[in-house]
Automatic annotation (TrEMBL):
Pfam families: NMO. It comes from Ramlibacter lithotrophicus. Keywords: Flavoprotein, FMN, Monooxygenase, Oxidoreductase. Signal peptide: none annotated. This is Nitronate monooxygenase. One of its GO terms (molecular function) is oxidoreductase activity, acting on the CH-CH group of donors. InterPro entries: Aldolase_TIM, Dihydroorotate_DH_CS, NMO. PANTHER family: 2-NITROPROPANE DIOXYGENASE (PTHR32332). It comes from the Bacteria. GO terms for biological process: 'de novo' pyrimidine nucleobase biosynthetic process.
Amino acid sequence: MKRVDDFRLKLGDRDYVPIMIGGMGVDISTSELALEAARLGGIGHISDAMVHDVSDRKFDTTFVKDKTRTYKFNINNLNKAVVQFDMDRLAEATINHVRSTMEAKRGDGLVFVNCMEKLTMNAPRETLRTRLSAALDGGIDGITLSAGLHLGSFGLIADHPRFRDAKLGIIVSSARALQLFLRKNARLDRLPDYVIVEGPLAGGHLGFGMDWAEYDLHTIMDEVHAFLRAEQLAIPVVAAGGIFTGTDAVGFLEQGAGGVQVATRFTITHECGLPVDVKQEYLKATEDDIIVNGISPTGYPMRMLRNTPAIGSGIRPGCESYGYLLDANGNCAYIDAYNREVLAHPDQKTVVVMDKTCLCTHMRNFNCWTCGHYTYRLKDTTHRKADGTYQLLSAEHVFKDYQFSVGNQIALPPREEQA
Ligand SMILES: Cc1cc2nc3c(=O)[nH]c(=O)nc-3n(C[C@H](O)[C@H](O)[C@H](O)COP(=O)(O)O)c2cc1C
């Protein structure tokens, strides 16, 4: 019976344990989590989502406070076009986060950064170019472009000295999206080093419509493999979304995947950035508690826990402090939804906004509990303690369970109470 450790993910002239821990913003996939994956010979991701805030928390910088002060005058203005990011500060925050992570790296694995392109930041091209260049300057091993994949992104950093040496990958949810990306980038003579195919059971935003349940990751993987074979391209393909056991992973590796990307099982590890009480919410969840809805202003469906505090919250848009989802014209779907409710209820002090949420503020405060489809199975991966709470795991335990388990088994950790 094969196990994940019988396979290797080959990138360039090196190979790795074929397990990637996926990027989870905002700082849910912390440096500590990513570094564990690298130490164990696999690949971890940090995320550059809301990187100013991440830097402020980790390094006592004051990027968010300073931006809030600069744009305070605009807080009651519906038009947010004036709220711009300073490129030098964006680069500085990114380098702080990336460099400190890379300096702490041990072992044979790699650390990548997950860059969600839907963070359009009121100036999509300039901010993305700055984020990508700064991550390369900070010494990141690789960049995974995700959520809202912009077909011209590689071109933004084509003149960077590390453009050909760093690993560059993309996340797609269909062979068609991959085809479009490759066609658009053909003139750069620079293929992605890996392609992550994210199926409909993943956490975070989904690359599908509300008909996500009609898709199946194995089928999409077959389509992607067939497309690459037809094009005679040998790009490693990494399967992601709903891979819950080592045996699930082996199923994809035997189908031809170069590796797997997993995330949900790591949300209840000590190294994961979610607050401890939120980890317990993930552990308590039942299948009925996992929902997919349209409240993200990005326009993509998003999976989350039913009792997510962000749902229905009518807080004032936080764009003067954050503004990561503002499009090129300073718009965000939450601003419209919020203003509609304020106009409809002029006498109310607080409003309820059901159809959209202020994703920046709520992700920043860990109040948008996005999660993978199989979150309801997390309770089966650990022990329930005498006080009714669940024991958290180490990232090493979960990583090794994926790497070495067979027969759909999940290794439970040693009981803390006995340890
Ligand atoms: C809590 C959480 C947050 C996530 N955030 C992001 C993100 O910021 N960017 C991204 O590209 N994918 C994100 N994802 C998707 C994961 O990186 C990964 O591809 C996917 O969840 C793998 O499926 P699994 O969770 O079933 O293992 C997130 C997933 C979870 C569970």
